[in-house]
Write a structure and sequence with these properties.
The structure holds 2 protein chains of 2 kinds. Chain A is an all-beta fold. Chain A is built from no helices and 19 strands. In chain A, 0% of the residues lie in helices and 41% in strands. Chain A has a 10-stranded antiparallel β-sheet, with no helix packed on it. Helices cover 0% and strands 39% of the residues of chain B. In chain B, a hairpin with a 2-residue loop joins strand 19 and strand 20. The chains are: A mainly beta, B mainly beta.
Chain lengths: 254, 298
Amino acid sequence: MICRTCGKDNQPNHRFCQECGSPLPVEGSPRPRAASETSRANVRGRLVLVRPDGSDGGSHPLNEGANLLGRGSGPLFDADSYLSPIHVRIEVGTGKNDGRCIVRDAGSLNGVFLKISEEELLHDGAHFRLGQELLRFETLRPARLLEDGTEVMGSPNPGYWGRISIVIGRHHDGSSFPLFGEAVVLGRERGDILFSEDGYVSGTHARVSNRNGQAFLQDLASSNGTFLKIQGERVITSGTYLLLGQQLFRVTLG
Amino acid sequence: MTLGLVCDACDTLSPLSATVCPVCNAQLGVSVPGRPAGGVAGGATTRPCPNCSNEVPREHRFCGVCGTRVEGGDVRTSWASAQNARARLILIKGEGQDGVAFPLGDGEHAAGRLEGGIMFPEDPLLSPRHATFFFRENKLYVRDDASRNGVFVRLRAPKMFGSGAILLAGEQLLRIDSCPPEEAPLPDAEGSYFYASPHRPSRMALVQLLVGGEVGLIYRSRTDLITIGREGNDVNFPEDPFISGRHAQIVAIEEGRFQITDLGSKNGTFEKVPMLAQLLPGDHVFLGQQLFRVEING
């Protein structure tokens, strides 16, 4: 049983956290909230909600150490059904790690998306978001020969190095686009892959390029940004934007 | 007519007693396998093929040009000679030139990369045993013998198919999938909903199957119609030299049923036969990289 205030792992039958004293939720009972928030004085940053019009909404304090946030963390989050109850872990460092912030997906259903500011490496299976589109990148495996020496017939492959699929359901893909050449541009009006009906996608939004056998994702100064689902841990700085569920947040430190 | 030994390397005729060619020093002798000795040396080393009259060396058991067995007679591979063939498979190469003819009589005629009388050892897209042609009740059939790549027959007219049908248009191997109807999204065990791209309902998807087995393009149509061709269609393949401008169309008729129509393309649209297909005179059959035209007598 993980304490929702400080992240300490407690024994299942405990009713109060052994580390910070906050009440622990009983299985099936509604989570008590708010009291734990004011009991800690070492707030080191804030997670600020960014409204669709770009203005700041409410914010949630980020304490020193680990912060486990999700749909159960307060009014800022509880209306977003795309958030998991415990969605993201944000750890704020102090002392020699002062200003250093580590973000990790806490086992959420939909993932934690980071707004990219520079070119990012795309691994096989990486997910990213443009506007409302959820896309998955895959590398293409080389042709295989069967055991009896027969080759598998098919359309000529001009040197596809990857594929981008539109994710339309947990186990369903929509259209899929094989990638060829040095780079592929995605956008609403101009590019190789067009999302002409998504108003949140810029005319020219992002680029996926292939260099030395690796794929890279780059935002092309889009209005709303390009978001990459994080895998493992990411170190972020103050001012970084995170997409959690359906909401955009900005991490401010200090 | 002079009797002598012809050198395999330089065609020089030498006396029967010679052991080495006086011109190029190659070994001479009737027991050297390989090239037929040519007409000058006499008829001891080759005999004509009963089907196409090619001179077949004595050591060979099949004619190198048409594949007819020339020695003995094997009742299991019932080869018909040209006279009593009930049908023929004409191999069309490239630009539609008529090539070799394979006669089909009673019994089974196997085709494959390593087995059968219709054998193409250099075609890696053929399975070792790929298909069988045979007559039953006066009709000619082709059976896919669980080959990896399948047997394709050219569409003669618009035809109905189910989900999973595979087509060949130009160089493109394409599969039609019917898409599951929209299901109401359900939350997971924690009450969270899965976020996905907003998508519009679609009845079918066209899937491009790449050489080697990977999936390439997937096109999900939003209407009941998908057009395919080189340019100006829903799905375009501008780099494919064998596909026509407007090549074929697929119409969703009802849940899981599609009608596929060739739009008068130059090279045709081929359907992958499920297991067995009847062949009519003039049909085109494609297996591995081999394209045949079917001729049926009577």
